[in-house]
Structures are given as structure tokens and as C-alpha cells.
Amino acid sequence: MVELDVFRDFRFGVAEPSADARERASVRLGTVIEGRPRRATSILRPVRERPGRVMLAFAAVAVATAVALFVSVPWKSSPGFLERAQAALTPPAGTVVHMKWQETRSSTDAACKVTFAPSEMWIDQAPPYRYRGIVNGLPVPGDPSPCASGPPIEGGGTLEPPPVRGYLGPGDPAAAFREALENGTARDEGQTQLDGRTVERIRFTDPKGCFVLEPDCEPMAVFVDPETFYPVRIVNPNGNAPSGRFSSDVRYLTYEYLPGNAENRALADIR
Amino acid sequence: MDCLARSLNEPKAFTPIFDRHFDAVHRYLHRRAGRDVADELAAETFAIAFERRTSCRGTGSALPWLYGIATNLLRRRWRAERRQLRAFARSGVDRWVNYEDEAASRVDDAAFGARLAGALATMRRSERDALLLYALAGLSYGEIAIALDVPVGTVRTWLHRAREVARQELAEPAPRSLANSGADVNG
Question: What is the pTM of this model?
């Protein structure tokens, strides 16, 4: 192991973390432990006293879209895929992302299946990156079933830092897609038919299909429009609820960039 | 009993995990990707670890699992990490890390560090991850397997390949330019 042991000296003697870095990390962890949103400030209607609910609901979407986008597989995509996708996904400056989706959840453990009413979100891509969403599929306090759903909740606030690439909180799947492309962690698996249309199947997973280590995690399927590369459908079998695992099938009914005028910016502003 | 099991019912019981392991995780990230990245990703590692603590495996220290999360986070930046390594290998100047003793300037070590960087840049990402968990984090084969969620046999294979690359690269009489090597296509 001599050849490997020499690497023990690589960058040996680096400085310890600064007190400031440690403090910031501690505060961030404390925020997570206490259940407060950590990537966004938020305003809720009508249940302002339960910010975690909106974050959980938004997280259901964000997890389905973004979690696996940051992990890697060797890049062996078809010729031109990377260039085409990057070109298509470069967002027009100052626009407002508008997306509408509908989620179907099913669970063998909980023996249930439900399709929630559509959810909708607007994200202003100009500082301070305001967002607003009306989300269905919120968990019901006291009901452990992944198929339980409370009333729709309107939530919003500002996102920090942009671009929206967090794995929790409101997320723009295309932003996460862009980052995956830049990092070489997305792979084109070719075109297929889905719901009567041609889509491109993209894989964003490591060989185990997990971002964070989970021994029994299954691969996630992501389908995008072959021309625009906007999200069409994301199937994530890795949902976890108190009553068991569930699969989340998110269909994007709308994904578009609206002009960044005052009227559209107002759609992303919950104040 | 799963590691971190206590914090499942008592979330604040996770705090001592942070106190105990933050410096080690930060140091590992710092040595791999520089101080700024370490500041960000070390915080991210513990936030994720808390949120996903049910998936922590093993009966001993949570540290290998934490290193695994940190390594996964680094994968977002593997191209940047590779660029750093190549630049360090080419120039012999490491601009990304801060040393405890800057006055020493580490001139003597710089040339050898650059050669190590060149070797690391040539390895596949999985081999580099396994090697650096072994060398920088001091993990055993079994702990690396936990960290990367792969069988121990896979760890052995990756480290065997890493050793072969290291042997070949470090046997070169002088640092070679990596600019056009085309190495590490698969990360």
C-alpha cells in the first residue's frame, strides 16, 4: 500500500475550520433540527404557524426533481445531447419560471394510491428571487399515510442563494438539470414514448440511484421534452413516510419562462 | 442498533455528532476541494445527515457515513476538483487550501504535492474517492464500503486500480503536463 500511503501527505497541515465557518454550520444545523426552512424564507397562507408543512410539500416536488441530479454516472450520452440540452436550458435573463404539476403517490406499504390536485409555482429569477406556490399533497398532521392530503397551501418567500438547486424547498428542476449537465452528472438514455408523446429519458443517478446513502434506494426516472428539455414527468420510487415507502409520480402540466414584467413578477410575490 | 438511533427520537441528540466530527469532515473537504468549498459543504453534510439520519448504517461511529455524504456532495463539483488538481499539477502552486503554517510555505512539499495532484487527476472518480477516504480520512476498507455504499470487494478493486495509477504516475521522472492528456474522461 506504499503507493497509496504517500497520499496521506497530500495537503497535510491544512488549517482548521474558522470559528466563523463552524458557527455558521452550527446555526444551519440548528435550523434544520428545529424544523425551520433552511434555504428559503417563507410566508404562508392561510396557516402561517406551520411553515414546515409548505416546505415539506415543496420538498416533495424538489426531492422528486432535484435530489438525484447531483450524483454522478459516467457520461456516455448520445452525440450532441449535452450541447443541445445546455443551449435549450439556458434561461432567458430576468424571466419568471412558471410550472404546474400533478403528483400521484402510491404505496405498497400503506396500500394506497392517490392523485392530488395540481400544484403551481412561480419563481422570479431576478434578485431577491421571490417565489410563490400553491401546493397540494400536503401531509396531514397525525395521519402517517403518504396518500393523506390536507388542503392546498399557498406559500412563498425569497430563495437564497440562487440558482434554485437545493434538494429541499422550492426548486426549479431545470436549474438542477443545468447544474447536472455542467457537472457531467446527467446521462441521456434515449427517446421513448410516454403518455402518447415522444420524450427523452434522462438518468441523474449514481449506480445505486441515491444522492444520500440508502441501501435499498431505487433508480429515479426523469423524462424531458426532447426539444426544450423541460421536465415532463419524474418518477421517484424513494419516498419515505411514517407509514412506509411510497412512489411519487410527478407530471408537469406546464413549464415555461414568463417575461419578467411587473405583472409576472407579482405572481411570484406573496407579500 | 443503527448509528444515530438516539437522535431519531431526540433530535437535539444529533448536536454532539456535529461537535465531535465537524472538524474532521471539514478537514477532509478542505484537503479535497479547498477552504471555501469546505465551509459550504461541511455545513451541508451535517444538515443532510440530520435529515437522513434514518439511513445511517453501522453500529459504530457515524463518521464513515458522514464522509460518505461529504463525498457525494463533492461529486457535484468533480469537474472543478479535477481542474484544481490539474492546475496544481501543472503549476506546482496550490491556491485553494489554507495551511496552518503558511510561513513555512511548504516549498519542499509543493513539488511532490503537485505530483500527487497529477496522479489524482488521472484516476477515475470512484478510485479517487476510495483512495482519498483511505488516505485523507483514514478509513478502513470496511468503512470506505459503508461510506460509498458499495461492497468491500468493490473498494478493493478501486484501491487496486488507484494503486496502479499512482505507481505509474509517480514513477514518471518529472511531472508531465495534464493539459492535453484526456485523462479521467469518466470522472
Answer: 0.50
